[in-house]
Write a structure and sequence with these properties.
Chains A, B: This is Transcriptional repressor CcpN. 2 copies of one chain form a homodimer. With 207 residues, the first copy, chain A, is an alpha+beta fold. Chain A contains 10 helices and 8 strands. Chain A has a 4-stranded mixed β-sheet with strand order 3-4-5-6. A two-stranded antiparallel sheet of chain A has the order 1-2. In chain A, helix 2 packs across helix 3 and helix 6 packs across helix 7.
Chain lengths: 207, 207
């Protein structure tokens, strides 16, 4: 659903002149009031305009409601990704756990020291399991990490809906974001936390 | 925005008789076509009805789009909460960590053995910190838990929007759900994971 040019013009007139009667709006547009009846009905029904008896039309401050779906679900990962914390295969479990606390991150991405390519992922859960089972905190993360190609990745152009589906399907807390589809260069991460915050922020702005 | 009774009646008539002309709809309702013009404009603009030239009105199969906001954000915590994993203050860090893996949970709620009241919360992060810093896995969770009243709780009637705001504001992964507002009886938990899944599910159903 998209507003017509005439409906958009009505909104601008109301914004500039509120409260304004239907007759005045029609006059501004050089049209008759009956011609505008359907447009005004659509604009008040969708909550863009308020119609106050004996006062006139007022702009509600709400943007056009049905755009909601697009804003909510088609937002790109690019707009929501956060910096990723990188460690190397030789990093010890102890040092990795310390990094995780230092940056308050849920997972660490392991890249090759030479090429910079993503080769593994270590989650809070992986570290917890390792610390519970081993006395040896000097174990390297390479031993406990999940390895490529078993890591699900995202890329900047992916929609938040698609990223959320992958997080849900694979039951992980975040996805590494790689430069472009097929690349192994990590440029950030997209987490459940960020996705939930996105939805909550959108919902809060509209109330 | 809510549909009027007349608009709902129009939808039912179209569903039963599609394709149907505006004149026929007016006839069914005992009204004139000009009377219905605004209603038909609202229903076609919002995508509930399709108006096909020389054919008539057809039901699009879409539910009423602007209800989206309500379904998305006003869903109650009750509908989304999951079972909580309970431990007691004397439970050791080792046993608590094992429970966390067994139930694949992000956090454990600590209740009083006698009263059943919520007295604390232990997160994956709390356990990880304890295991990293102590050799003693026989420490009791009472020593490391976050204590009431420093725990933010939810209740069944809370909206998902409000629960999400609390999770975001307090930077936690889940909230214990108590019986009613003010109670200390835990009946479940509401997590970031479940809230994100709710939004992703809603977005997927509408595509």
């Amino acid at each position: 659903m998209e507003l017509s040019e005439r409906q958009k013009a009505i909104i601008e007139i109301v914004k500039a002149n509120e409260p304004i009667s239907g007759d005045k709006i029609a006059e501004s547009l050089g049209l008759t009031k009956p011609t505008l009846r359907s447009d005004l009905a659509v604009l008040t029904m969708t909550g863009v305009l308020d119609a106050r008896p004996k006062v006139g039309y007022i702009y509600s401050g709400l943007s056009f409601e049905p755009l909601l779906h697009e804003q909510l679900f088609e937002t790109k990962v690019e707009a929501l990704m956060t910096p990723s914390i990188i460690v190397f295969p030789k990093t010890t479990v102890r040092d990795a756990t310390t990094s995780l606390f230092m940056y308050d991150s849920g997972s660490l991405y392991v890249t090759d020291e030479t090429t910079g390519d993503l080769i593994g992922l270590v989650s809070r859960k992986d570290l917890l399991r390792s610390l519970l089972n081993n006395q040896d905190n000097d174990l390297s993360v390479a031993v406990i990490m999940t390895r490529m190609p078993n890591i699900i990745v995202s890329y900047p152009e992916m929609s938040v809906l698609e990223a959320g589906r992958l997080l849900t399907k694979h039951e992980v807390d975040s996805l590494p974001v790689v430069e472009i589809k097929g690349s192994k260069k990590v440029i950030g991460k997209i987490s459940k936390t960020r996705i939930m915050e996105h939805f909550i922020k959108m919902g809060s702005e509209r109330n």
